[in-house]
Amino acid sequence: MPRAKTRAYQSPVRQRQAEDTRRRIADAARRLLRSKGYSAMTVDAIAAEAGVAAPTVYAIFGSKTGILTELLDQSTFGPEYENLVEQARGTPEPEMRLRIAAKIARQVHDAAGSALDLLKGAGVVAPQLARLLKDREGRRYAAQEHLIGYLEEHGKLRPGLNRTAAWDVLWSFTSRELYRLLVIERGWTSQAYEDWLADTLAVTLTSEGRSSIPR
Fold it and tell me: Domain 73-205 class?
């Protein structure tokens, strides 16, 4: 007689416990960064601060870099970000999705500033920070495929602009580097950056984009 197949089951209690442990470890790492700096934020120190075993920290985050990624993600991908993503997914108009993408870029870059300042002030070395940001840029690029696919599927990509080029343009225009140049270096307000980005994405990527920039 064949054995009955077992179902994969995730206990809600265990899931909450895992989430709580993850949060405690991240909170402990943040406290150590602020009080003692990056060099003192060892996995053993984080584990002791969080009240867990060091192997637990490794099992959840893999390394100190994984913990830094978590701290950046917590600062940028909170409830406001999730609300904007849901708003974009519920909007059928392609150009409006691009305008929400501009709003998301502004929200992410505004929120990331304090977290990056914390990491730099805590002594995270430039090469490691660069690797961390490079990894985030790769994930950001992959996440934007859905929006480009939506434009293409609905026939809204500007004529002569292929999918890959459109994807590259979206990724480049929504980058932190462009935000840094305009907002931090040139003194634009975040709202001015968002308005410009929304217009620029709509005009550059779609066949029906209209600019609302005053002439």
Answer: mainly alpha
